[in-house]
TrEMBL record:
GO molecular function terms listed in the Swiss-Prot or TrEMBL record: metal ion binding
Name of protein: SCO family protein
Disulfide bonds: 71-75
InterPro entries: SCO1/SenC, Thioredoxin-like_sf
UniProt-listed Gene3D superfamilies: Glutaredoxin
Amino acids binding Cu cation: 71, 75, 159
Family the UniProt entry places it in: Belongs to the SCO1/2 family.
SUPFAM superfamilies: Thioredoxin-like (SSF52833)
Length: 196
């Protein structure tokens, strides 16, 4: 019986590894090939109403996080983490950009997302848009997002909680997991900055 259990667990691990490889092999980080992870076109706006497209993520290494302003825990924690990483990097982190893209465009207007992000840091740009355009960027980056009904018409959003790391070509280079240690996060950001 023990041998059967070990065999089953080995099969589960193997399937998980295959699924993970299939997900990320669609785009090898740094290849920038069309139709790959992160590829897509969308027309969004920042907190000042300025245009944001896929081209906006080119020209500098950046952190890209998807969240929403009514989030009770993950989003404010991650936004605070991003502010702390910028502070820890100091001058070394000057080329690094930060973006907070809403998964809740119904409530997160440009003004709302601007005020929300600015209350924590001036180094991160809040981004919103129409539900249709937000759906396009979520699809491009394969971000999970789902509305969860609450009471009295209120709702929360389940969503991907990782910070995406992009190189200066706007290509995916890796992630920082939710509540990953600051030491590991800074190490990843320094590697990203070194690549340019």
């Amino acid at each position: 019986m023990r041998t059967v259990r070990i065999g089953l667990w080995a099969a589960v691990v193997a399937l998980a590894l295959i699924a993970t490889a299939a997900y990320f092999l669609v785009k090898v980080p740094g290849t920038g090939q069309a139709g790959t992870f992160g590829a897509g076109t969308y027309s969004l706006v920042d907190g000042n109403g300025g245009p944001v497209t896929e081209a906006s993520f080119k020209g500098a290494p950046s952190m890209l996080f998807f969240g929403y302003t009514h989030c009770p825990d993950v989003c404010p924690t991650t936004l605070s983490d991003m502010a702390a990483w910028f502070a820890q990097l100091g001058d070394e982190g000057q080329p690094l950009k930060g973006y907070f893209v809403t998964v809740d465009p119904e409530r997160d207007t440009p003004e709302v997302i601007k005020d929300y992000v600015a209350s924590v840091t001036d180094r991160v740009t809040g981004i919103t848009g129409t539900p249709e355009e937000i759906a396009k960027i979520l699809s491009a980056w394969r971000v999970y997002s789902k509305k969860v009904p609450g009471v009295d018409g209120e709702y929360t959003m389940d969503h991907t909680a990782s910070v995406f790391l992009l190189n200066s070509k706007g290509e995916f280079e890796g992630t920082i997991a939710y509540q990953e240690s600051s030491t590991v996060a800074i190490e990843k950001l320094k590697k990203l900055l070194a690549k340019g």
